[in-house]
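Q: What would this chain look like folded?
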Amino acid sequence: ALYTLMAACILAQVILATLYGPSSNKASKAAQGEPVDEPFERKRGQADGRWLELHKEYAKEARTTTQRPDVVFFGDSITLGWVNSPVWEQITKRFESVLNFGIGGDRTQHLLWRITNGELDFAHRPRCSVLMIGTNNLDSDLPQLIAKAALKTADIIAKATGTTVLLVGIPPRSKYKDNAIRKKADELNEILASSTPTKNKVKFIPFPDVLTKDGVFTREFTVDFVHLSNNAYQKLAEKIIPEISTCVVHSKPHDRER
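A: My prediction, written as structure tokens:
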């Protein structure tokens, strides 16, 4: 039932992206008054209660874990999209008790609200966490503020779980490199790469290279110049699976402490 709900959320996110687009004026207005680096419950456009329902499902999953999850994924529709890709099976077969806490359309402030309202209340804390967040903020917020919020989110997760957070750079945005949103995405990733404090259990993982030599984001790797194709998820999996494995191996000797 949970994954049926997750699939419905992915479909809803794609429809909203088609109608309004992540960089539309309507999306920008929806974010007005929401501090990018403070927890903010997502209420606009949520008359059906789907966002809150899915959050409650995730919080319940955290509370009722019967063993330590190897890895938990936190993020927006790109994170949620893993579960509809055949590549996801490579991760679920490789690791034990894999959880996905992605919700389509979430901005940094929405994920901050989720993790400070139950989604980190694990009965058994995960051995590793994967975080990708910020692409939905690009239309309304400065890259410096988005980076600050993403790092704050990673730090909260790291402190709550006591283990490493892999902070993954966001994918390219838009088809061409001269697009304004693409430039903001690039700047955000540059800030994260230079600011991530590895000594505090947060490790930055650059998004894999999915662009042509001319900087074009092609349909080989994206379905709409925001969300990822299976080929892109495959390249991302090849990059993060070894990192997750390292986290898990280093964490297992301390299982009795969790």
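The two ends are 29 Å apart (CA to CA).
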